[in-house]
């Protein structure tokens, strides 16, 4: 994943994000419901949010836990600005905002854990992340580092995308490439499946082996008038392709046209007009025991 390209994409479309982020809002609401049902021994006093976006989840966390202090991270400084716009000055006093890459930040914090500082001064009771973990280049290492930042009996809860996300688009490209006698090429990123996430959080040689991991997955199907509308909306939530092996499709109008036709033929919307798009949404929750 080209993190600099991810950052530029989110910076460019930060002000438009909320208009197009329908699925991400649903994910955030579901994630918060999972957190409310989590068996926490007491209300969290220190919360870390990884990938705050425009602050929809941040705002709800501040309201739900009025005694907590939030540290919020986002790769995009423009997203941090949008988050601040949502929050009253009084609640901003309970926040620390960092425009940082969560992966490098987590490694730094993991190293700090080895210093002689009491755990209660730097650990988190709750770590939350909505629609961010799919951007990690090193999800196993990063999640293991984040686990080390949890207080005993702390909770990490996250929502991310699963492998069936945009399967219609991937299949339509594959069909188009076959039709045009082109070499099959990946178009977009891949996503970890349930087994991979379980492996990350049940590594018996790592810190996650001290806790319990739960996973819930569901499919969310949306409809768009045209394939172009779907791709436009993806771009406007900053999620234009950022894999380091960039899309080759921009150099082939014929491939675009063939893909669009395959999509319309094979994945028409159930309403009878437009096309369908599948979002595979996974909810993970890790309960730290120590």
TrEMBL record:
Its EC number is 2.1.1.197. InterPro entries: BioC (IPR011814), Malonyl-ACP_OMT (IPR050602), Methyltransf_12 (IPR013217), SAM-dependent_MTases_sf (IPR029063). Residues 48-155 form the Methyltransferase type domain. The keyword Methyltransferase applies. It holds the Pfam family Methyltransf_12. CDD domains: AdoMet_MTases (cd02440). One of its GO terms (biological process) is biotin biosynthetic process. SUPFAM superfamilies: S-adenosyl-L-methionine-dependent methyltransferases. It catalyses: malonyl-[ACP] + S-adenosyl-L-methionine = malonyl-[ACP] methyl ester + S-adenosyl-L-homocysteine. GO terms for molecular function: carboxyl-O-methyltransferase activity; malonyl-CoA methyltransferase activity. The keyword Transferase applies. Pathway: Cofactor biosynthesis; biotin biosynthesis. Keywords: Biotin biosynthesis, Methyltransferase, S-adenosyl-L-methionine, Transferase. Belongs to the methyltransferase superfamily. Converts the free carboxyl group of a malonyl-thioester to its methyl ester by transfer of a methyl group from S-adenosyl-L-methionine (SAM). It allows to synthesize pimeloyl-ACP via the fatty acid synthetic pathway. This is Malonyl-[acyl-carrier protein] O-methyltransferase. It comes from Paenibacillus selenitireducens.
